[in-house]
């Protein structure tokens, strides 16, 4: 009998869910993954225990969480679509399953919750006045987790900047700065030069969750943390790291073509998402990790050059 602690991962084929599943398995946990095509996924990754089910089906989530020590809620609507229909029902299903089985929820947070009034330095308790519908939904999601904490459902929530890294899924690095699968001749700048921005290397985010999980009994029932990640102070640090990965001293930059976003937004969900989140690139933005450092001693932090090179290799942008 496998006596390792069981963790249910919802979203194991996604960026943060997949990264967390790998890190937690390496730490000795047994991974159960909920998926709508479980048998197909089991052939691709037999190291996980794949179970058939849908995060929108309350019974599927409840059954999959049986015996689980923790539940990773790493699911998001595909293609940024139908947030209003899917996000809150899915977190309600996870909360109900966690409550029924006494499991702890690991919740990747976002900075969508915050509006410009909270910039430039985001703390865990900064005011949440989102500018977008998605931001308002995320505020509601966190409020539901906080309410569940009053009923004994434990949550560890970690917010971070824009994800990048191997198999990170939809993200600004892979869809804005460079083009996957193609040689890099230039890098697009979503923000103005001189404007600081927060980035988070996905394996570091996963390691942060893993270390916090080990300290779960020392944490409050609803525990929130911010990662500083990689703060690009002038908007050019990421560009310089990309150039170094390519063996160059510099690389051409160009402004991201924001003008085309409103034109394509009605027809392409991704561009609608980019349009809504443009405000995150119009002012300096960083996250305060003081609380995280107090708990862990140090934030997991892969050197930027190493993180960027690994990301570009995964995107097949370097030979």
From TrEMBL:
The organism's place on the tree of life at top rank: Bacteria
One Pfam short name: Epimerase
Annotated NAD-dependent epimerase/dehydratase domain residues: 7-218
InterPro entries assigned: Epimerase_deHydtase, NAD(P)-bd_dom_sf, NAD(P)-dependent_oxidoreduct
Cellular component terms (Gene Ontology): cytoplasm
MF annotations from Gene Ontology: aldehyde dehydrogenase (NAD+) activity
UniProt name for this protein: NAD-dependent epimerase/dehydratase family protein
Species the sequence originates in: Allorhizobium terrae
């Amino acid at each position: 009998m496998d006596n390792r602690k069981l963790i249910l991962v919802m979203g194991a084929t996604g960026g943060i869910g997949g990264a967390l599943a790998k890190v937690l398995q390496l730490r000795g946990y047994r991974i159960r993954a909920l998926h709508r095509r479980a048998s197909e996924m089991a052939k691709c990754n037999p190291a996980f225990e794949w179970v058939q089910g849908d995060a929108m089906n309350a019974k599927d989530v409840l059954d999959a969480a049986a015996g689980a020590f923790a539940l990773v809620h790493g699911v998001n609507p595909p293609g940024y679509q139908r947030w209003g229909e899917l996000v809150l029902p899915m977190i309600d299903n996870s909360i109900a399953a966690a409550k029924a089985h006494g499991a702890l929820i690991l919740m990747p947070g976002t900075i969508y919750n915050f509006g410009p009034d909270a910039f430039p330095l985001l703390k865990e308790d900064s005011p949440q006045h989102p500018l977008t519908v998605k931001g308002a939904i995320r505020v509601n999601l966190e409020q539901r987790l906080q309410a569940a904490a009053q009923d004994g459902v434990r949550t560890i929530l970690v917010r971070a900047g824009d994800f990048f890294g191997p198999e990170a899924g939809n993200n600004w690095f892979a869809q804005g700065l460079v083009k996957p699968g193609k040689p890099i001749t230039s890098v697009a700048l979503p923000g103005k030069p001189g404007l600081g921005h927060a980035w988070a290397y996905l394996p570091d985010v996963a390691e942060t969750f893993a270390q916090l999980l080990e300290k779960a009994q020392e944490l409050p029932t609803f525990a929130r943390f911010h990662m500083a990640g990689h703060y690009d102070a002038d908007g050019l640090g990421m560009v310089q790291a990309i150039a170094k990965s390519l063996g160059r001293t510099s690389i051409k930059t160009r402004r991201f073509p924001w003008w085309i976003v409103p034109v394509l937004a009605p027809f392409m969900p991704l561009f609608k998402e980019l349009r809504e989140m443009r405000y995150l690139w119009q002012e300096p933005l960083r996250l305060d990790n003081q609380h995280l450092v107090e708990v862990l001693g140090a934030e997991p932090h892969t050197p930027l050059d190493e993180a960027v090179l690994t990301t570009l290799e995964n995107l097949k942008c370097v030979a």
